Amino acid sequence: MIASLLFLVFPGYSQHWVAFTHINQEWIPFIFYLLSFGFTARALRHPDKFKSNTIYALLLLIAGVFPTEYFVSIEPLRFLFIWVILSEEINRAGKRWIQSLKLWIPYVLIWLANVIWLAYFYTIGGYESYDVEVVNAPLTIMRIFSTIGEALWKAGLYVWAQVLVLVSKSITAPTNLVTLALIFVSFILIIFYLRKLNALEGETNTFAVPALLIGLIGILLGRIPSFAAGLPLTLQSSYDRFMISMMLGGSLFVTGLIEILFRNSRIKIYTFALLIALGTGNNFLMQISSAGTGQSSRKFTGSSPGESLL
Question: Residue 251 CB: number of other CB atoms within 10 A?
Answer without folding.
Answer: 28
